[in-house]
Structures are given as C-alpha cells and as structure tokens.
Amino acid sequence: MARRAMDPPVSQEDLSGRLARRGIQITQTSLSKIENGERYVMDYEALALAQILGVSIAWLYGEEPK
Question: What is the value of pTM for the model shown?
C-alpha cells in the first residue's frame, strides 16, 4: 500500500533500485514475495523500507494505521 500511495507511485523495480543505493540488495522478485508474505524481512531491510516509503516500522508490521 505505501509503495503505491507514493506520489508518483513507486514500482517494485524502482524500490529495488532505491534499496540498492543504500547497499541493500533486494530484487523485484523478492519484493513481490515480501509484499505477498512469502519472504521474511530482515531488520535492516525493514528499516530501509520504512525510511524510503515514509512509514514507520510498526506500520509495516501492521501495528498502527497509516
């Protein structure tokens, strides 16, 4: 949701590139698996995703409303 809510919306490929610029290698395929609950997220990945997407880590884990 957060990825698509960005203005303009961010593709999985673009998000992968933004993560790579931070030294975190997550492919588009892996991002798809994360979004579908098929892959675990490491703590440092969750931190980077939250920062890039402009949400809290708690929100990523469904602990608070956006």
Answer: 0.88
